[in-house]
Amino acid sequence: MNYEWLDDYCLSKKGAVKDYKEEWSAWRYMIGGKMFLMCGGDKYGKPIFTLKCEPVFGQIMRDEYKDIIPGYYMNKQHWNSVYEDGNVPDELLMEMIDMSYELVFKSLTKKVQEEINNLK
To answer: What domain range includes position 14?
Structure first.
């Protein structure tokens, strides 16, 4: 798969920002100072996207797609990694990004949520 749309899709989310974490050699998409998606690599340098999912949903997706694995260097119950060169459909990756964004958004304080919701 080629996910050329990913950057625009993530940055279209209200309040989303992108930065580069030098120590991780990874791009991060953040909301309210918390990461909802990371673009990096595994221990072999193979490109992966890491994002947060509901635990049951994440397990089902890992069982269904060989290119979705437990989150690389993250909490294996809540985070999943998707190989960039794998066969995960665009629609599913979009659904996973949406879920990750919402889960991270809901974890923010009410004040920060309100500030983000008031952005134009």
So the answer is: 6-107
